[in-house]
């Protein structure tokens, strides 16, 4: 059915936007495999601006947290293979720009875009699903894709300097279990959803499992800042 496509959701995607995107990034429309090499350099994303607000600020950059709706079509016959408005009760999608949470063509297409802007973009196969295609999403091999995008918000990304300093209360440039635990509690309180107490412990454990690479019980600035779009 329409909208049931190219994305692999985090199992905790319903546990709060700010929390989930802090350290457990989502993958929306992420390509399951890189396109075969050689053609990407010769092809590019074609961008048509359909609407540009009078006040166009801030403009999106790598690492920003974006909120957008988008529809995806096959260029070959115009058929729609994806519609964000039919998913998650019609809420716009949140994702971090430029870090591979969406196909490369969308990461490129949504750079330097401002809230309220609408774009129509054409993405070649090499920047989408390549020669392999994506059968689960009804995208054939070598498919050129068209997306109509409406951007609603551009926010500081979850791995920004500001976010790190907010969690790092003692300013020692590393995040302790206590600091992240407190942050999770605040995020839970902010979104107002009821959760079993075990959820907090499970997410905290998962955060350290995925980010404490040297196993010292802390998440350093280097371990935290995997997107490398800011200097700490």
TrEMBL record:
GO cellular component: endoplasmic reticulum
Domain PPIase FKBP-type: start-end pairs: 63-155
InterPro entries: EF-hand-dom_pair, EF_Hand_1_Ca_BS, EF_hand_dom, PPIase_dom_sf, PPIase_FKBP, PPIase_FKBP_dom
Source superkingdom: Eukaryota
PROSITE patterns in alphabetical order: EF_HAND_1 (PS00018), EF_HAND_2 (PS50222), FKBP_PPIASE (PS50059)
Pfam families associated with the record: EF-hand_5, FKBP_C
Signal sequence annotation: 1-35
UniProt key word 4Fe-4S: no
Keywords: Calcium, Endoplasmic reticulum, Glycoprotein, Isomerase, Metal-binding, Repeat, Rotamase, Signal
Matching Gene3D superfamilies: 3.10.50.40, EF-hand (1.10.238.10)
GO molecular function terms noted in the UniProt entry: calcium ion binding; peptidyl-prolyl cis-trans isomerase activity
Domain called EF-hand: residue spans: 199-232
Catalytic activity: [protein]-peptidylproline (omega=180) = [protein]-peptidylproline (omega=0)
Entry EC number(s): 5.2.1.8
PANTHER family: PEPTIDYL-PROLYL CIS-TRANS ISOMERASE FKBP7 (PTHR46222:SF2), PEPTIDYL-PROLYL CIS-TRANS ISOMERASE FKBP7/14 (PTHR46222)
Name listed for the protein in its UniProt record: peptidylprolyl isomerase
Species for this entry: Pygoscelis papua
Taxonomic lineage: Eukaryota, Metazoa, Chordata, Craniata, Vertebrata
């Amino acid at each position: 059915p329409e909208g049931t496509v190219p994305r692999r959701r985090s199992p905790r995607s319903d546990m709060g936007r700010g929390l989930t995107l802090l350290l457990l990034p989502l993958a929306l429309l992420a390509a399951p495999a890189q396109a075969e090499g050689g053609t990407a350099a010769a092809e590019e994303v074609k961008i048509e601006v359909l609407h540009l607000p009078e006040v166009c600020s801030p403009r999106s950059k790598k690492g920003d947290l974006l909120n957008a709706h988008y529809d995806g079509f096959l260029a070959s016959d115009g058929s729609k293979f994806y519609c964000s408005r039919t998913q998650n009760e019609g809420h716009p999608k949140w994702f971090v720009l430029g870090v591979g949470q969406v196909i490369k063509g969308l990461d490129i297409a949504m750079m330097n875009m401002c809230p309220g802007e609408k774009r129509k973009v054409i993405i070649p196969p090499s920047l989408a699903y390549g020669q392999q295609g994506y059968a689960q999403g009804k995208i054939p091999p070598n498919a050129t894709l068209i997306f109509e995008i409406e951007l609603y918000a551009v926010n500081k990304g979850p791995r920004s300097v500001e976010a790190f300093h907010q969690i790092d209360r003692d300013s020692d440039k590393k995040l302790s279990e206590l600091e992240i635990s407190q942050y999770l509690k605040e995020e839970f309180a902010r979104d107002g959803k009821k959760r079993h107490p075990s959820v907090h412990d499970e997410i905290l454990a998962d955060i350290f499992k995925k980010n404490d690479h040297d196993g010292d019980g802390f998440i350093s600035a280097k371990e935290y800042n995997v997107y490398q779009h800011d200097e700490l």
